[in-house]
Design brief:
Layout lengths: L17 E6 L2 E8 L7 E2 L4 H5 L19 E4 L4 E4 L2 E2 H7 L2 H10 L5 H14 L6 H6 L7 H15 L9 H27 L12 H10 L10 H13 L7 H10 L5 H13 L6 H12 L5 H9 L20 H16 L6 H15 L1 H5 L6 H11 L7 H22 L28
Antiparallel strand pairs: 1-2, 2-3, 4-5, 5-6
This protein binds acetyl coenzyme *A (ACO).
Amino acid sequence: MADNDTNRPDTTQKMSPSATISIGTRQAELPVRSGTIGPDVVDIRKLAQDLGVYSFDPGYGETASCQSSITYIDGDEGVLLHRGYPIDQLAMNASFPEVAYLLLYGELPNAQEYCDFRENLKEHALLHEQIRNFFNGFRRDAHPMAILCGTVGALSAFYHDGIDISNPASRDLSARRLIAKVPTIAAWAYKYSQGEPFVYPNDDYSFSENFLAMMFSRPNTRYRVNPVLARAMDRIFILHADHEQNASTSTVRLVGSTGANPFACIAAGIAALWGPAHGGANEAVLAMLEQIGKRENIPAFIEQVKNRESGVRLMGFGHRVYKNFDPRAKILQQTYHEVVSELKLAHDPMFDLAIELERIAVEDPYFIQRKLYPNVDFYSGLILRALGIPTSMFTVLFAVARTVGWVSQWREMIEEPGQRIGRPRQLYTGAARRDFRPFSNRN
Ligand code: ACO
């Protein structure tokens, strides 16, 4: 690993006081655990044993479901760290495979490690030729997320018997295969929907150049990779690589905790990501801009948004976790301007509309008072549109990037000492015990 010891993170855990929980006259002393940074957690594992009760937290919003050293978020401060490194430093200076290596192995690679990792990903980017056959089974108008989810799941049929998740080398191989093959499947899902021939990975390109080439090369034209656009693509991948214990990552961990095939685990993560509440907001930004149509309609639209009765929201603004600013949005705002300038899109009505909408919203007291700022989705949708990527592919690209986070979190979970199957409890509100009655005794 490249970093010297002085740059290694301090992961020593601080000692913390315990918490006392009382129910009537019964009391339980529960340990409070501290991480390196961030809020402490009350370790409630003895709650049922000591007090005979469980905790209740639907949606797990207040529950730390695991211990992790991969990603740290402080929503109030707008902080996102991967293995301790701020997201803006990574997005502006590193490549996506470098960030993938960091997330997987905990340290930035040195030059040799990076080179080996890249070569290895290139080797694994090809798909088994039989996987081509799967595509023909999909309707030609199938959503690319359906194709991605189904085909990644199908990889488990190609890589099953040889997989031993208790073996670190086997886990590593699965992780690298997934990071390398998911982009190929994603690009082929697009090609299939377009009725165009599949484009094979090209080792001469960087990770993001190769992805764009697999998306846009055609047999009758030579695709020239624009470095500004490839860099924008790379940044979008970096910014979506991991976001700690979100719904899809928690899904991957839960499925993985059963010992399931890693390719099946990632297919489950893709299914979770597909939901509009998770991966679909950047699509909604473009739909909103199309609905607004032109500059003159912005004030009326903003009034509609501010009227709570209308139920209309300014898509791409606000975030559940980031309450001051989304650190990813700042980077993509800059990237967006680079792309607009490179492609000379300043006069495109959609881009003009987006810039004006943002300007009005960030100066409006309604948004300022509620701490509503543009989030990562406001810009990512616009950039992807400028790159020529159709909206149906937006969540697919998110999945390409997030595969890195999923496999890193999956590996960490499997490697945890005493790892056991995820099994939440419930508050039962159905009928109490009653006896079966035959039809003749039912009303
Ligand atoms: N437009 C207008 N008003 C908003 C918006 C918005 N986008 N977001 C929040 N508000 C208002 C709410 O109406 C509420 O107002 P009130 O205090 O008068 O009742 C106040 O701001 C607080 O809103 P909450 O719903 O409590 O904020 P929450 O944290 O629950 O919601 C969310 C976060 C869901 C992201 C929300 O901001 C939203 O719907 N944004 C638009 C959709 C979007 O861009 N989602 C992508 C998020 S980024 C990502 O997931 C990768």
